[in-house]
């Protein structure tokens, strides 16, 4: 460890258990929020019309940038507020999202499965654009980064993620957990969700039950609220 440069040592988490806790909670949080969310469907629909790899790269770049920004905002709160208050605020946010998801589950439990509303909205928005011819030829990475598809995936995903439940939850989680664990866990969660979206998002959208996602997500957020409020893992 002493052989590493100073800036590398400073970037590494001092407490591995704190890093692991932040990583695990951030990873699970993103999986609970993003499967079947607007950003999921944006990537899924764009990938039907364009290169899956380019769409995945553009969407993930936007989500990674938003994760870093959200975690930085969350980490700044304890610098101006007492950590007890930021922890309490985070717990209340988790509880609010948990109750909201459980209410959605309760509302949907007696209904027959229908087309996902989020999917229908995203499809309607994207249908204003003319579908591009799908490319099967691999492009050079340098060209892909500046391709219109990459830019479109990046901008649309960033706009869809701004103010979303997962962004606010990431801010709240970073306020009381290890910064690097939250960032890495969040980015990995986004990478997996976006990967599932571009590979078979439209098919998955018909198989994933909104009720099941709402129930699991609601329970997970309530658990996070209890853990954060108790401070057991601090």
From TrEMBL:
Keyword Transmembrane: yes
GO cellular component: Golgi apparatus; membrane
One Pfam family recorded for the sequence: GDT1
Ranges annotated as spanning the membrane: 23-46, 53-73, 85-102, 141-159, 179-200, 212-231
Gene Ontology biological process terms, A to Z: Golgi calcium ion homeostasis; Golgi calcium ion transport
Membrane association type: Multi-pass membrane protein
MF-aspect GO terms: calcium ion transmembrane transporter activity; manganese ion transmembrane transporter activity
Keyword set, alphabetical order: Membrane, Transmembrane, Transmembrane helix
Subcellular location: Membrane
PANTHER family linked to this entry: TRANSMEMBRANE PROTEIN 165 (PTHR12608:SF1), TRANSMEMBRANE PROTEIN HTP-1 RELATED (PTHR12608)
Record family assignment: Belongs to the GDT1 family.
Name of the protein: GDT1 family protein
Species annotation: Chondrus crispus
